[in-house]
Amino acid sequence: MSLTPSPTPSPTPSLTLARLNAAVPAEAVALLDGVYEHSPWIAQRALPSRPFRSLAHLKHALVQALAASTVAEQIGLVRAHPELAGKAMVSKTLTAESTNEQSKAGLTDCTPEEFAQIQQLNADYNAKFGFPFILAVRGPRGTGLAKREIIDTFARRLHNHPSFELGEALRNIHRIAEIRLNDKFAADVSLGNDVWDWQEQLSAHTDPGYAEKGQLTVTYLTDAHRACAAQISALMRDCGFDSVYIDAVGNVVGRYEATQPGARTLLTGSHYDTVRNGGKYDGRLGIFVPMACVRELEKQNRRLPFAFEVVGFAEEEGQRYKATFLGSGALIGHFDARWLDQKDADGITMREAMQHAGLNEADIPKIQRDPSRYLGFVEVHIEQGPVLTELDLPLGIVTSINGSVRYVGEVIGMASHAGTTPMDRRRDAAAAVAELILYTEQRAAKDGNSVGTVGMLEVPSGSINVVPGRCKFSLDLRAPNNAQRDALANDVVSALKDICERRGVRLELEETMRAAAAPSAPDWQQRWEKAVDALGIPLFRMPSGAGHDAMKLHEVMPQAMLFVRGINSGISHNPLESSTNDDIQLAVQAFQLLLNNLAAEQAH
């Protein structure tokens, strides 16, 4: 039996892939009429990619056709779109598709004040960019954005650089086209809708001081954190997990047992805590996607030849206490008892917080997993970066989680009068660090996939008319493997020493953290690749620059990750973090295929 769920009842499609693949070119272009506003040439150029293997394949072929076009053609496509609540809406000359979209967003029913504000934004935007503002007003869920969100997005994007904003316009055009194609093909994205909704519902819980501001912040063992655990637990039970419990550190654990007792287990999951004023999808997507898979299995009354364990890790971000990866670390026996004495900003120790939550610290060693009982660990995660969205790809295969090394340092020179100290007599500490920043940028770029950041920079007691005598800084270096990380670090530190020597300043440098890279296990990476390929999506392999729970599980068992594209240029740790129901639907389907393929492997 296939793992693909029975689709929910949906409208009869006006178009099928079989019909589109069989049609002569002129008919095929006509069948796709209206997908891209007044621009049939995009469909014409995508047709050589036939036969389309899936709707996702068709969407990507259209994306590629536009990507291969000239900038003039791209700007022409943007200009083919009407303004939001503009003259075409007033005169009722919008296409049927645009009328439907603008009405769903309430733009056909603006107050006089809203209409005036949008008209002013339209004028300012056109004056700056020379083309109309494009926004997929039916939004990431496909049901329509609120007018306030549309206006806020309009005002925010007005400040973008022109080249960047053209890319944003084209990405929104592709989203508009995606929704229109879904309508034509009566696509079923119910799984993506459910996971999207679960994340939105979970975001109702936020720590005191942030709820009043409309911000999402959930830190370890606060009331909001415990409410999230309770909500995830209840949803797991609704999905049909055989057992659901909250363990000794607050992890939410759901198990769906195998066909036979004693079978090994596939482990998955991610974290449900957040950074301060963060996003709704970081971590949580990796909990809810596999939960949807379990729900569909339970609906089919189907078991797998292996047990399936989904864990909502209680802590990964290190926001309330300095104890990152606490949840996943505890599963591999890496809980440091000294953490229990750490105090938060209110003076509450972790031990006290755990007692308040009803957790027993004596039980923590008991939750350590025996790796021999597990097949491996897989994790789905929002990308948290711009790569997939710039490539217009919904999914990416993670090849490795970057290793990193961090330093804090201070350069000590000589504070002196800015007016009387000649340029060739200065011992400027800040100038030395500025040179470090530029060198780090250039050196990391040589590797292609290394990154280097000076994120903290301070001139203590600095004055406008004083040559800086001291400069404090941080240094964060990351690369996909340890050798590349170490080579980068050696070069940057060596260059920093040379800079300080040449400038006659003194250096104090302390290494504060060194984390090993976590390359994906080849066989598990290939399982993700096989699943993504079956969906008709081009394979794109990429390292993860951010750390994830998979890094901890990597220490005791094989792991591999799947990235899901984010919108708003892939921004993360930010309220603008989001993904679409379509991309989430594909992530669920990829996970279903991975489970299905793994079951077939086990059967042989």
Task: Give a written overview of the molecule.
With 604 residues, this protein is of the alpha+beta class. Helix content is 42%, strand content 15%. The protein is built from 21 helices and 16 strands. The strands form 3 sheets. Strands 1, 2, 3, 4, 5, 6, 14, 15 and 16 form a 9-stranded mixed β-sheet that branches. Helix 13 links the parallel strand 3 (265-271) and strand 4. Helix 11 crosses helix 13, helix 17 (429-447) packs antiparallel against helix 18 (482-503) and helix 19 crosses helix 21 (581-603). The longest helix has 24 residues, at 162-185.
Low-confidence stretches: 1-9
Structural class: alpha+beta
Oligomer: single chain
Please give the largest β-sheet. Answer: 9 strands, mixed
Number of strands: 16
**Beginning-to-end CA distance, first to last residue:** 16 Å
Helix proportion range = 40-55%
Q: So what's the overall shape?
A: globular
Average pLDDT: 93
Strand content: 5-15%
- The total count of helices amounts to 21
Radius of gyration: 26 Å
Features:
9-stranded mixed beta sheet; 16 strands; disordered N terminus; 604 residues; 5-stranded antiparallel beta sheet
